[in-house]
Amino acid sequence: MGKRIIALFTSKEYRDSIIQEAVLKSGTIFNTLKVETTPTHMKIMGEIKANEDKAQEFIRILKRMGGIVRELGTMMKFDPEKCVACGLCFSLCPTKAIICNKDFSIRYDFDECILCMNCVNNCPVNAVSYLGD
Ligand code: SF4
Ligand code: SF4
Q: Sign of the CA dihedral 38, 112, 3, 27?
């Protein structure tokens, strides 16, 4: 398991070699999961495969190159107090980010999340929310 991030660059700052440069300088592996291009920005979602120190170095390098970098774990919030354990999110999650415990309570591992928003859009009690980027 790695650390999932979203890196946002303006089209002016972005160049194709940015990720490769950060990988080489930090000694990490980066798996790109999703790329979104708008007329003004490039948004890259991916997973850093490295220990914490190297992952943070990778993030620092992207920031030095002008990127805004957010860790996915800080972009989503789960409130177990609100959750009624209906299991809907668990059945809709395309990754292993939602875990059903033996007692049928639910917990989230946002390091596995790909921000598909299935849980956010379908939870009947708004127990999970997207904090934005
Ligand atoms: S946003 Fe999608 S991937 Fe992330 S926890 Fe919710 S259902 Fe799973
Ligand atoms: S959909 Fe909402 S209430 Fe149902 S298990 Fe998931 S977080 Fe809990």
A: negative
pTM above 0.85, yes or no: no
Specify the CATH number of the domain 75-130: 3.30.70.20
Proximal ligand: closest to the CA of 97: 1
Ligand number nearest CA of 34 is: 1
**Which residue type, as a one-letter code, is found at position 74?**
T
How far apart are the CA of 114 and the centre of ligand 1, in A? Answer: 6
pLDDT of residue 16: 85
Enumerate the domain spans of the chain: 3-72, 75-130
